[in-house]
Specification:
Blueprint: H1 2-23, E1 32-41, E2 52-57, E3 69-72, E4 78-85, E5 87-94, E6 101-107, E7 111-118
Parallel strand pairs: 1-7
Antiparallel strand pairs: 1-4, 2-3, 2-5, 5-6
Length: 150
C-alpha cells in the first residue's frame, strides 16, 4: 500500500508540472512587426537627430506594462526595430529643445512606418508677469441710470 501511495504521489507531481508547461502561451509563435521611425521637426520637416524613442507595451486595460526599450534616432532622424509583437504599443519621443511626444499605436502589420513630428515649446503665460506696460482695457461699471430696477 505504501508503494502504491508513493507512486501515485510521484505521478500526481509529474502531471501537475507537465500540464501547466503545455498550457502556457509560447511567445515565439506570436507574429511580430518591424517598426520604422522617422522623427522630424513639425515646422520645416527636417530630421531630428539623437531623439530618444521609448517603447512600452500596453495591456488590455490600456495601462503601461513593465519593461520597454529605448532607441536613438540617427542623423537622418530614423530608427528601426524588429521583433515588436502585435498589439498596442506606447511610443514616447524626447529631444532637446522640443515638446515631449506621446501616443499609443496598434501594431498589426509585418512592417509599420511611424512618422513623428516634434513641435517647439510654446510660450508660457503667468499670472505673475508684469502687465503694467500693456494693461488690458477695463470695462467701466454701468452708471446709475443704466442699471435695471428690480
Amino acid at each position: 500500500m505504501n508503494k502504491l501511495l508513493c507512486s501515485a504521489m510521484v505521478l500526481l507531481g509529474i502531471i501537475s508540472v507537465v500540464i501547466p508547461a503545455f498550457s502556457q502561451k509560447d511567445k515565439d509563435d506570436e507574429p511580430t512587426s518591424w517598426i520604422y521611425f522617422a522623427v522630424v521637426k513639425d515646422d520645416n520637416g527636417k530630421p531630428v537627430r539623437n531623439a530618444a524613442i521609448v517603447l512600452h507595451p500596453v495591456n488590455e486595460k490600456g495601462r503601461q506594462e513593465r519593461g520597454g526599450m529605448e532607441l536613438k534616432s540617427d542623423p537622418e532622424g530614423k530608427a528601426n526595430l524588429d521583433g515588436i509583437p502585435y498589439g498596442p504599443l506606447r511610443v514616447q519621443v524626447l529631444a532637446h529643445g522640443f515638446q515631449t511626444y506621446g501616443e499609443d499605436f496598434d501594431i498589426s502589420k509585418p512592417k509599420t512606418e511611424i512618422t513623428i513630428k516634434l513641435k517647439r515649446p510654446q510660450g508660457q503665460f503667468s499670472i505673475y508677469d508684469d502687465n503694467s506696460k500693456n494693461p488690458t482695457p477695463r470695462q467701466d461699471a454701468p452708471s446709475d441710470d443704466q442699471k435695471k430696477p428690480n
